[in-house]
Amino acid sequence: MSHMDILDRLYALIVERRGADPSASYIAKRLQQGTAKIAQKVGEEAVETVIAAMQKDKKELIGESADMIFHWLMLLADGGVGLDEVMKELERREGVSGLDEKAGRKLLKRRATDE
Q: What confidence tens digit (pLDDT) does each residue in 53-77 have?
């Protein structure tokens, strides 16, 4: 079983639970609360992940990372972004220097503002 399988299954579960009863489903509750609340939760989990890393607490780093990824998947679903779209973007960047990729994004932004 691939590690991507679990991400795909979680994403599918999140999409499936959109219309569920918020009193019976954590996912439905979060999605009903809206983008700002979901984004806040991603931020909280990211901070907790960083704290665990800084404390060199491997068990907490694993757990908080899982929480962060789970909430990130909810944020993607809320925004109508498929996990496959993010994976395709990562594939596009594969083999490209991070500095070159970042410079390319800045160039595109400059072009967009010049028009």
A: 999 999 999 999 999 999 999 999 9
